[in-house]
Amino acid sequence: MNQHEITIAVTVYSRREFILKAIGSDLAQSAPVKVIVLEDCGPDPALRDYVLKEFGGKIEYFRNPKNRGLFDNWNACIENCRTPWLSILHDDDLLLPNFVETMLDLAKSAPGRSFYHGLTSTVDRMGSVISTASADWNGWRELDLVEMADQDFILMFPGNLFSVETAKQIGGVDPNSYYTGDWDFWFRLALQGGGAQSANVIAQVRGFQGAERESTRIDRAGWRWALENAQRKRNLALLAKSKGIRVQFDRTKHLKGRPIPSRVLLYNARHYSNRILKYNAWLFTHSRPPHFRYAILQNLVRLLGPRILKVI
After folding, report:
1. How far apart are CA 187 and CA 214, in angstroms?
2. Burial 82-110 (b: 16+ CB within 10 A, else e)
3. Span between the terminal Cα atoms of the chain, in Å
4. pLDDT, tens digit, for every residue of 261-293?
5. How far apart are CA 65 and CA 180, in angstroms?
6. 75, 172 in Cβ contact below 8 A?
7. How far is residue 108's CA from residue 139's CA, in Å, rounded to a whole number?
8. Tally of CB atoms within 10 A around 24
């Protein structure tokens, strides 16, 4: 693999706020690569001119003839890619200048994998770093299929590179996925040919809660943990079918290791339907409390019922 075999695709719907910075981070790579933009038939007819005025002939710009949605627009990236390797970047995220070189080095150390990944830092709207991921290994690691099946936070979205051929073999990204499409995609790629992750930080993800973000809508509706648990069950079923590795999903055991964040629950509970409120309250009361205040709130919910979460 060399830099001439890599394309970076920036996906956008209508948001102008960060896209120039996202594209600029692609073009600022220490090893230059091909850059394309995939607009998902957004409502801003001047967005194309806005982008091309800044970057001219440095990029290619594609606009879907009809809206395909978040995950199917990733399939449009795959369809329009003319190189063997592709990285997809959201319009509000950034690649650090070492991204391509790190991926090239990783591919040399771990040849033949379906995809490669690095670590990320989280930044706010202004680009100030909020937190940075760190590795408990040196250099790189082989991604463990059981760990990937159970945990969605292993691979933050930016900083990815995957085989276009393998992506097509597995049918691309599930266009009907309602939240966990990226997790599902990485896991199916790993089942096909394995994955490797660098210990280097190579990308930045925007960590803000905008009203237009799908993750914000999912949290507000209360579906986040239900959808994640459903994805875990699908992953483990695929793991058993394709690799013969059988692992039972134990929801109670899982909650001991990853308690439901009380802050997210309290902030959004007023928007939940009664059914979703009961489901999330059950998850919350069966979580291992990370601190004393969490345990007090759990006891209040057990004593007074789930509806207390709507009024606290």
Report:
1. 21
2. ebebbbbbbbbbbbbebbbebbbbbbeeb
3. 55
4. 999 999 999 999 999 999 999 999 999 999 999
5. 25
6. yes
7. 12
8. 15
CA distances from 158 to 162, 204, 234, 298, 299 (A): 12, 7, 24, 35, 39
Task: Name the residue type at position 146.
Answer: V
Alpha-carbon distances of 250 from 236, 253, 254, rounded to whole Å: 11, 5, 6
Nearest partner of 117 among 194, 22, 21, 177, judged by Cα: 194
Q: What is the pLDDT of residues 148-158, one digit of tens each?
A: 998 866 787 79
For residue 50, the one-letter residue type is: Y
